[in-house]
Design a protein that fits this description.
The protein is built from six helices and 20 strands. It has about 290 residues and is an alpha+beta fold.
Length: about 290
């Protein structure tokens, strides 16, 4: 079995868990390839019992066959990983070294168990849909997809903006707000949730449109089919706005005409057989727990 180890930062508190992962992979005869910038950070502080290969990004999928990408960190690490995986169809295993971790749902204390589960095929693979951004002006290069969400936001402390919104060419609403979020089911537990949006199950086939601090209090999140195309025109007292795809951002202007639709490919997320989406939301959100006792 060949796996990619992907992470962004090697924090000192996480080094014992990183060492444990490499020891476990070596003990089970798993060949590890490490994301180049991360390997540079850990090369002299992790004791490699076998020399790892180097993974430099998307182009490597044309030369090597990998079984899994193991993302070490939080949900943000997985969001970064998919910009390298893209349409390579390699399943992503999220080991949570962060805080909440809806996507990176495997706790660090289960590293050995997780590797055993992978070898014994005791897992399920969830297909997660992405959204794709179209624009009349260049934005985000060739990585114009997002697993969690797309947003349009006001910049800095400027006054609220107006976002004219259309669904399949029909006028929906003009949002006077600090911004707007279009989230996938995966992203429904992220920024959208903190702005009052609903939790959507991963395979629901929806987008949710959630306003950020709307001026009109009767404006609420809207759930629509992910077969829809959602288009936007933007107005404001300033001519610069912020546009994001997951954790990536660019500055746009009122000259940008934007639309989002379902992406042409999905990403694949590994869930261990004993831990699914309902277990994740119950544990992460402390549902069914009486904290008074």
């Amino acid at each position: 079995m060949k796996v990619i180890i992907f992470s962004k930062v090697a924090k000192e508190k996480d080094l014992p868990h990183i060492q444990h992962l490499f020891d476990t992979l070596h003990a089970n005869g798993v060949q590890a390839f490490v994301y180049g910038p991360f390997l540079d950070q850990i090369r002299n502080i992790i004791n490699f019992k076998s020399t790892p290969g180097t993974f430099d990004g998307y182009i490597d999928f044309s030369a090597q066959r990998f079984d899994f990408l193991i993302a070490l960190g939080g949900d943000g690490t997985i969001l970064s990983a998919i910009t390298h995986v893209r349409d390579a169809n390699v399943p992503i295993v999220g080991i949570n070294l962060g805080r909440l971790g809806f996507l990176a749902s495997i706790e660090k204390k289960r590293i050995s168990e997780a590797i055993t589960y992978l070898l014994k095929r005791k897992y399920v693979i969830e297909e997660r849909s992405l959204l794709y951004l179209e624009s009349n002006l260049p934005v985000f290069g060739d990585i114009r997809f997002a697993l969690n969400d797309f947003t349009i936001l006001k910049r800095d402390t400027s006054s609220m903006i107006t976002i004219h919104t259309y669904v399949n060419g029909d006028y929906l609403n003009s949002y006077w707000a600090d911004g707007i979020i279009v989230a996938t089911p995966t992203g429904s537990t992220g920024y959208s949730l903190s702005c009052g949006g609903p939790i959507i199950f991963p395979n629901s086939g929806n987008f949710v449109i959630t306003p950020v601090a709307p001026h009109n209090l009767n404006i609420r999140p809207v759930v629509i089919s992910d077969d829809s195309v959602i288009a936007f025109d933007i107005e404001g007292r300033t001519d610069n706005f912020l546009c994001t795809l997951d954790s990536r951002f660019e500055t746009i202007t009122s000259r940008h005409h934007l639309a989002v639709r379902k992406n042409d490919f999905n990403v694949r997320i590994v869930q261990l057989q004993d831990y699914g989406f309902m277990e994740t939301i119950r544990n992460k959100l402390a549902w069914g727990v009486d904290r008074r006792n």
